[in-house]
Amino acid sequence: MKHRYLPMTETDKKEMLATIGVQTVDELFADIPEKVRFQGLYNIKEAKAEPALKKELSAMAAKNINAKQYASFLGAGVYDHYTPSIVDHVISRSEFYTAYTPYQPEISQGELQAIFEFQTMICELTGMDVANSSMYDGGTALAEAAMLSAGQTKRKKVLVSETVHPESRDVLATYAKGQNIEVVVIPHKNGVTDIDQLNELVDNDTAAVIVQYPNFFGAIESLSEVEKAAHDAKAMFVVSSNPLALGALTPPGKFGADIVIGDAQPFGIPAQFGGPHCGYFAVTKKLMRKVPGRLVGQTHDDQGQRGFVLTLQAREQHIRRDKATSNICSNQALNALAASVAMTALGKKGVREIATQNLQKAFFARETLKQNGVEVLFDGPIFNEFVIRLNKPVREVNQKLLEKGIIGGYDLGLTYDGLENCMLVAVTELRTKEEIELFAKELGDSHE
Amino acid sequence: MNKKDQELIFELSQPGRIGYSLPELDVPEADLSVLLPAGYLREEEPELPEVSELDIMRHYTALSNRNHGVDSGFYPLGSCTMKYNPKINEDVARFEGFAHVHPLQQEETVQGAMELLYDLQEHLKEITGMDEVTLQPAAGAQGEWTGLMMIRAYHEENGDFNRTKVIVPDSAHGTNPASATVAGFETVTVKSGEDGLVDLEDLRRVADETTAALMLTNPNTLGLFEENILEIAEIIHGVGGKVYYDGANLNAVMSKARPGDMGFDVVHLNLHKTFTGPHGGGGPGSGPVGVKKDLIPYLPKPVLVKEEGVYRFDYNRPQSIGRVKPFYGNFGINVRAYTYIRSMGPDGLKAVTEYAVLNANYMMRRLAPYFDLPFNRHCKHEFVLSGKRQKKLGVRTLDIAKRLLDFGFHPPTIYFPLNVEECIMIEPTETESKETLDAFIDVMIQIAKEAEANPEIVQEAPHTTVIGRLDETAAARKPVLRYERELQNA
């Protein structure tokens, strides 16, 4: 058969078979026992030519409502932010996206240096000493942080706040099962971690205390109090953080965090139905040799020229096998590159400005909703999300909002007892005053 | 900083330059010190670069010019399946209705995305011969761990708490034993025999009532088909264990032998390998897992179901191992894999495997006179050579790899698998032309001759790259893992 991805001609094939010394390609598969040999062709859809396939998939995509055509107030861990056009142009350079892990540094300096820059930017934003080259996502990074803590402290219990993303907590529970680690949830009080409960639960068996900043409800946790509770018990202080928020918020490193993890999706990575995003993992110098995943380090060649290599690989699965600190191999390198470009474009000033705009707009939206008679829960300091209570099911309200071109917020009743009819509202810098006012008006009306 | 050094983006920074275009703040501005509690408003600015848009584009263009991808040239990295990454995949993944869909939107607003995932699952079921597939795992290693967690849940459900061991061959990928550890198992190694295949006698010795599973790649990492696969599966099933298929090498057997028909109970695939991901400089990948009937209850949740033409995520799965990743997996990669499968169809996928195997055997036969061939039999999609002969001349496999760089080729995988001395593992893939294969072979032959006549040229390679061999020992001894201005001037 002929296909644009398969260049061999019949002449090529004949010559190659002759060189090998066989008559047919089938002979090369003679070592597959008759009993397991698959006969015929897969029962799957026939191949489609490029134009027809594009048309079909374009129609499939058009069935999905998306944030380019609707004004989205949905966040809950995945955000609709300004993405500089340059991001996609850089990651579309195929020298980057068609390469693999930079095992041969002499011809992979581009990727290695880009990752070195990514590591630096994550350190700068989080206030930490060392960051790795990326993780799958914020949720698995959080689970890895818990495992690292258990290994480091030789303790088997982790405390995680109820205000940490529910799906990250689900992932943590699965990993914890594998490692026989006990996970205890610290309840929330008024939308933030209940410090009294934390102080009661934390003890000498606690490997880590994990909180989110800003938390799942958008609120600013009291990191200084959590730090004290964790470190008094000699447990690791782990903070899951939206790195974009850290343009305006004091970084977790300043509060004494041992491990800071999270997802760099807000920096130039599209929502794409939940993945791929880009986990990050940052630690203090003390934990440098315990970090999961790949690290890029600076070195030089024999002429003294600066260069970059994968380093401290003795931690990793391909060297240490069953003694490795983690099983991660492929990571999210291309998305780390996207995040780097976005962080570079925003730069020192832009990252402050974008974060501040989120704060201002979310605050404005919260006030506007109040004025429209909507009940706001947990009225404390927030970043770009907050919780409101409706007098009917969120689902019903969101249905109505779609008719106005709005994607409504997240239905908290799906994951939190006691928060039925409550909506988590996200307001990024992309939401205009008009959109916010329309949203507030619609929700206000739905209250009547 | 050396004059020839490629500048870091931080070194291009000039105060006062910007590279962004944010909307004007159109809401009344409140005092930040009122909005945030004391101590929570960031004081020190993060040291991010201050550069213009053109500065950024030039910087990354310069970096890309210092990087080798499949589009730059041949990339025969064994076990990684570095095939061509089709451009239609990239276009489709960027459709607004795929790229800008939020995972927590109400299900009726994302039926198109769910339809794609469901149909991809159906295709992968047929391709692997398994009864159900989850697309949740982010990459192959996470798929391995997911599969092992399901096996663990299955045994525990049967009251079988003593199955603490996972058997892996000595030729296995490093992720296999690492995943077993993360899933709470001990690893036991089974030896390969003289023929490069699992030693059945040794397998019988290590398999017992403590065996939870055997993890196997077939063809194995030597590129050889495990002919005794049915017997292997029988031995493991006989002691009550499960057989796990590492799908890294699926490119070798599409339409030829399905894991489900070989006796495997769990399978993971690497969509960024066989199904043109792309590799992204190290990721993102996607690592779907397929299972046989008796393991279906343990699949990670949510499970995507179709009822009367409507797609829905089912969370009511009491025996599930739980969630392994937020949301539903690496959707963007799954879109690319689906586009690829639909571009190839049944005839295309069969041809993919046939050409991948033809190309590998052709290269192996042409190179055999010049290097040691540890296993002299038909290979599948990849094969291993040993650089033993060259080592005696003072030329190591690492040197051969570095010399290849001078000719614009990405070297093969080296020093893996661990059971072959001075190993060189070559996987050409089906998307390369005969001219490319021949050019690479000719260079390999030239290097073999150089090793005899002029070893220095190989030992001192590379000669033409933008940078010479790097001091990895220095990098590890005193790690510099981030940019700090002071350190650069030191």
UniProtKB/TrEMBL annotation, chain A:
GO process terms (BP): glycine decarboxylation via glycine cleavage system; nucleoside metabolic process
Record InterPro entries? GcvPA, GDC-P_N, GDC_P, PyrdxlP-dep_Trfase, PyrdxlP-dep_Trfase_major, PyrdxlP-dep_Trfase_small
Any one GO molecular function term: glycine dehydrogenase (decarboxylating) activity
Q: Does the keyword Oxidoreductase apply?
A: yes
- Where would I find the Glycine cleavage system P-protein N-terminal domain in this sequence? 3-439
Say which family it is in: Belongs to the GcvP family. N-terminal subunit subfamily.
Supply the name of the protein.
Probable glycine dehydrogenase (decarboxylating) subunit 1
From TrEMBL, chain B:
Q: Which reaction does it catalyse?
A: N(6)-[(R)-lipoyl]-L-lysyl-[glycine-cleavage complex H protein] + glycine + H(+) = N(6)-[(R)-S(8)-aminomethyldihydrolipoyl]-L-lysyl-[glycine-cleavage complex H protein] + CO2
- Point out residues bearing the modification N6-(pyridoxal phosphate)lysine: 273
EC number, UniProt record: 1.4.4.2
How does this protein assemble?
Answer: The glycine cleavage system is composed of four proteins: P, T, L and H. In this organism, the P 'protein' is a heterodimer of two subunits.
Q: Which GO terms describe its molecular function?
A: glycine binding; glycine dehydrogenase (decarboxylating) activity; pyridoxal phosphate binding
All copies of domain Glycine dehydrogenase C-terminal, residue ranges: 353-453
Q: Name one GO cellular component term.
A: glycine cleavage complex
Tree of life domain: Bacteria
**Protein name as annotated:** Probable glycine dehydrogenase (decarboxylating) subunit 2
Q: Which residues form a coiled coil?
A: none
For this chain, the family text in UniProt reads: Belongs to the GcvP family. C-terminal subunit subfamily.
Instruction: List the Pfam families.
Output: GcvP2_C (PF21478), GDC-P (PF02347)
- Which cofactors, by name? pyridoxal 5'-phosphate
Q: Where is the Glycine cleavage system P-protein N-terminal domain?
A: 45-300
Q: Which UniProt keywords apply?
A: Oxidoreductase, Pyridoxal phosphate
Biological role: The glycine cleavage system catalyzes the degradation of glycine. The P protein binds the alpha-amino group of glycine through its pyridoxal phosphate cofactor; CO(2) is released and the remaining methylamine moiety is then transferred to the lipoamide cofactor of the H protein.
Task: Work out whether the entry's keyword set contains Magnesium.
Answer: no
Instruction: Choose any GO biological process term that the UniProt entry carries and state it.
Output: glycine decarboxylation via glycine cleavage system
